[in-house]
């Protein structure tokens, strides 16, 4: 059997210092990602507004392609992360995606935009899994890890409030007059976005080196002989099955999410035509709600039960989506904030649950497997919506959302079943052996 590594602290570093360091890294990563929520769609709409390009369909297509590229990058990223360190993987991801974003304003045709944004998929593949695994590597299994995921996600989500607000302010000619031509606004925004991604990569490398210097991890799992009933400790032999079951859960949710989430902002834009700064304020406000919810989940899910907490939140998601698509603007905004918060605040509980079921030595590769099983179906869902919008089968984007969003979100509660099966299976094996 394997057990979690013990911890030795040097130079007076405390648990709070460790969590602050990981929270700063997560916050920087989420801040850089938050620009995407409105910038990419508005940029595509600006570039192709006077052409025959179907803006919503092309936007969905490039998001999907970047996601597929991310999925392809996940396995080498996970392997590199396990062998060479999380920090190096984060650095590679930050630099690659940052360069792609900085070059985006110079891409004025569909092919170059597609290729450059695909580079951000490579970067995300290296960055995402490595940051989450870094948090798991330096926290104890159970309450500390769940609390740490909640705190780091809350910090990251609060930072993500800033991105859409800044982007919306820069891109709105009424809020910020005097910047002409309009492409200059997008150039400034993409430069900020890209520089933040590069800064995330550098911060990842620095954070891991700081943790290694101050916290000695006993990396080699200790072999122990257990004559009594074994404790509920993850066994490396079960990692493939566990990862696959959690991956199936992510597959179901990924397809549902892919059909809905990338198109919520375009749906709001098509249905209500708000200004850029109002459009940017919606995800910003939802991030405040998400930050509070993520912190609450991180602090309380151990007592409530992680699977139970995830089930409750994923059941609420489709209900709130129905309210979103059938409401006038102000009430829609309330449902949007609630829906985005509820659907995402389960992440600390999910991450802690998964990391606790996987042995420490295989976390990078195991997380990569679940991310692939999330990413491919998510992009397939995005492509499916893109295709339906392109052929106009369900009418306009506004009409499409009213029909498709609630139906797709109904899959969220079903995604809990495979992860529950994985937890039950591991508990049975750990209690009674193979």
What's this, in brief?
The protein is mostly helical. It is 78% helix and 1% strand.
Structure notes:
78% of the residues lie in helices and 1% in strands. It starts with 6 loop residues before the first strand and ends with a helix. Helix 1 runs antiparallel to helix 5 (110-137). The chain has 434 residues and is an all-alpha fold. It has helices spanning 15-34, 36-47, 55-84, 86-103, 110-137, 143-160, 162-171, 182-214, 239-272, 276-304, 306-325, 329-345, 347-357, 363-391, 397-409, 416-432, and strands at residues 7-9, 215-217. It has a two-stranded antiparallel sheet. Residues 1-12 and 218-232 have low confidence and may be disordered. The radius of gyration is 21 Å and the shape is globular. It has one domain (8-221, 233-432): Growth Hormone, Chain: A (Up-down Bundle), CATH 1.20.1250.20.
Spatial strand sequence of the major β-sheet: 1-2
Overall residue-averaged pLDDT value: 81
Global structural class = mainly alpha
**Poorly predicted ranges (pLDDT <50, ≥5 residues)?**
1-12, 218-232
Number of domains: 1
Please identify, by name, the CATH architecture: Up-down Bundle
Q: Percent of residues in helical segments?
A: over 70%
Give me the CATH superfamily: MFS general substrate transporter like domains
Major sheet characteristics: 2 strands, antiparallel
Shape: globular
Q: What's the CATH topology label?
A: Growth Hormone, Chain: A
